[in-house]
Amino acid sequence: MMRPHLLSLGLLLLLFYFLLKKNDKLILVASFFIAWVHLSLSWVSILILGVVLLVQLIIERKLYWPSALYTLVGTFLGWLARPNPLGAIKLAYIQVVELMLQKQQEATLLFGREIFPLAPQTLFQNFLAFMILWFFAILVFVILSKKHPYILENVRMWSFGIMSIIFFVLTLTTARRSHDIWIPFGVIFIALVLSEILKQTRRNNLYYSTILITSLVTLFLTIYTPYKNNISLKENAIEPNKFKEAALWLKENSQEKDIVFNVRWSDFPMLFYWNQKNYYIGGMDPIFQYSFSQNLYWKFHYISADEVTKYTCATPACTKEMLEDTYTVLKNDFKAKYVFLEKQRNPLFYYYLENTPQNYEKKIDTKSEAVYLIK
Q: Domain limits of the chain?
């Protein structure tokens, strides 16, 4: 059940290290596994390559073509090694390029929160301590480079610093999930700068300021991080048995490959965990539904957003003439056999199902969710 980010992030850091070391064989291996494990994030491999090559060209006056060749070849081979390379590249295109295009058009799709920019309030609430260290490291880098010009020739500092700044900007302007990459690159940049300070033999004010600030922030994070994590788990973690009763009922009473209209796409993982017997309307980011069929997506959208009940519509802006009967849409367009919904998240649609017994037969009704047979 582990997301590939946990693997690809570590591989990205390794690729960065191997590029700095100009270790061509390991560059090939790292870029291969990044593309093989997490193809939609392999664009970061190319970005890392570009940053490192640019810094090396400016500072060392040399362009290391083998690094570029091995990164590109490794990425290509990693893509080819996937079970369905053509399908994989199509999905990666939808998840990266098409998603970005729709966001730029301000499409009102039911995106997950992680692909929207991080709000300033959340930034300061969750990352204030880290930002203090990170901005302090940037300031110290500027100060040290004026006193010690050789620091300006430090390829590692420049590379990690530039990468952390790029993903900090992406976190605030594009998608909050970019902080997954901003943080580790920022941590390494901080470590490089602090190491440079501590190497100074002279015990000056900057040296002692660094020790003090680093110690205070580390102490704060040691206490605050588990506290904040515990609160986050209580507020956001999913109960292990969520949807178990409804999903097992479907598994035991439905036919193989019956289609379940899950009103919320985010309910899919829990349903699928308990019941792989049925098909579901959606489970990944809604951009995949949108890419498959815009008409079907909008019909789903209005129901999922709890904006309509008896009628739905196939376009982003609907007139009275465009409305279609929900029952007919569920039965003929989606070919659904069952409807699954969380009552609290879709109270209007739940009310509609409850009060249309001629079309929907309630099969199970728990404290939080319900399943209806479409007659």
A: 1-108, 112-237, 244-374
